Amino acid sequence: QVQLVESGGGLVQAGDSLRLSCAASGRTFGSLGMAWFRQAPGKERAIVAAISWNSVMTTYTDSVKGRFTISRDNVENTVYLQMNSLKPEDTAVYYCAAAPGLPTTVPRYSYWGRGTQVTVSS
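Above: the chain's sequence. Below: its structure in token form.
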């Protein structure tokens, strides 16, 4: 079992930066792929970025490439999402998720946090 708790969201202006953190508990964290998803009002939850258990592989949705960076610390059991050059369209609830492998779709993820709100004003 893995419990995930996100933090670091907030209200920022366009062009600002934020770093989201996801603290995980459970012995299997180091063996799981981790991902950040986001869900804007009226839209489906969609992947933002994912990272393999050993940080060798990462993947990003096209709209955040070059602006967002996912990373993890398997000693601290934490995964991060560094978000730079934020845009109003990045406004959403951001969720941390964990699963074996490195899937990119919602149904493949077994463990979810409750989310943290990111709001970017223009």
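DSSP finds no helices and eleven strands in the chain.
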